[in-house]
Specification:
Length: 83
């Protein structure tokens, strides 16, 4: 997988604001560096953090920064965002 920015979100499960800020920052940084993708790692757990991250990515002001979002079929604790 070409140039990818990987962001581990495990420790941010309590603060929606911190999650949103980290996801936004990762997208902006990856776009600025012209990377191919961002790999967000919410972890497996109950899936709550994964659902929060996917909801954040659906916000209109972020959608314009990427082409598509995939959850890794082999690892449900990983979200791939292709720029």
């Amino acid at each position: 997988m070409g140039r990818t920015l990987m962001v581990d979100l495990h420790g941010m499960f309590r603060s929606d604001r911190e999650i949103a800020k980290t996801v936004r920052s990762a997208l902006f940084r990856a776009a600025g560096q012209k990377l191919e993708s961002v790999e967000l790692i919410p972890g497996k757990g109950s899936g709550t953090l994964r659902r929060r991250v996917l909801a954040i990515l659906e916000q209109p002001h972020l959608v314009k920064y990427y082409r598509r979002v995939e959850t890794d079929p082999g690892n449900e604790g990983r979200i791939l965002v292709y720029l």
